[in-house]
Amino acid sequence: MQRRKKQSDEMSFFSHFKEMRKVLLFSVYAIAIGAIVGWAFSDYAFRFLAIPMSGLSEVHFITTTPMEPLMVKLKVSLIAGVVVALPIIIWQLWSFILPALKSNERKYLYFIFPSSLLLFFAGAAFVILFVLPLCLKILLFAGIGAIDTTPFVTKSSYINFVFTLALSFGLFFQLPVVLILLIRIGIISPQALAKYRKWAFFVIVILAVVLSPTPDLMTQVLIIGPMYLLYEISIWVGYIVVRRRTKMLKREEEEVI
């Protein structure tokens, strides 16, 4: 895929709207093609997504409407389409944002793109491997000792729950990419991030409470922990980025002299 042409320093609102329209169209087309491919593998995809439920012998999937099996297959196909199209979606979004930067800063797209993609998948994998098994045990069996009940979960509600969690964590895991980009272009410094880490932790807690897809405390803790860890990692990576930028500037000055 070719990069979008460089935008001029000043663009009209209509020009920005046209560029955003291109981003959305490319993304929608990519998801549609991915969903068509995902339809053939939707049954295998659902089995994979249902792995966290396999260890809960007391919980059973049920179907409540005649249309539910078909709708579940469509939802899983759509999720597969998003996964397949994710590289295109992330490329399109960042390539729309970065042209607003200086010409020598647009090259960061080739660092941001793979990092952003990897972190998104890392967030989704974290959900499947750690968050879902723990959340399911807590949410499905909370208060079950008070009343004798048997947990049943519809396939449709389960897929919605998994998709919401995976999407949320995938977006939360983009924090290092954003912070390191801001450090690299000189808007913030790692020293400032380190100085205000207490405030950052407070903001992360607020975001976890407000944006958590579930109201339970455990899910919020599982959001806060990785996000703050990624924040600390961003600080240390930021120091490395600043040192390299300083060395590069000194080298350019020596070449000029």
From TrEMBL:
Could you name the domain of life of the organism this protein comes from?
A: Bacteria
Output one GO MF annotation: proton motive force dependent protein transmembrane transporter activity
Is the keyword Transmembrane helix assigned to this protein? Answer: yes
Localization, UniProt: Cell membrane; Membrane
Chief subcellular location: membrane
The transmembrane segments are 21-41, 76-101, 108-141, 161-187, 199-215, 221-242
Q: Which InterPro entries match?
A: Sec-indep_translocase_CS, TatC
Which BP terms in the Gene Ontology apply to this protein?
Answer: intracellular protein transmembrane transport; protein transport by the Tat complex
What Gene Ontology terms describe where this protein resides (cellular component)? TAT protein transport complex
Q: How does it sit in the membrane?
A: Multi-pass membrane protein
| Keyword vocabulary terms for this entry | Cell membrane, Membrane, Protein transport, Translocation, Transmembrane, Transmembrane helix, Transport
Q: How does it assemble?
A: Forms a complex with TatA.
PANTHER family found in the cross-reference section: SEC-INDEPENDENT PROTEIN TRANSLOCASE PROTEIN TATC, SEC-INDEPENDENT PROTEIN TRANSLOCASE PROTEIN TATC, CHLOROPLASTIC-RELATED
Q: What does this protein do?
A: Part of the twin-arginine translocation (Tat) system that transports large folded proteins containing a characteristic twin-arginine motif in their signal peptide across membranes.
Into which family does the record put it?
A: Belongs to the TatC family.
Protein name stated in the entry: Sec-independent protein translocase protein TatC
- Gene encoding this polypeptide? tatC
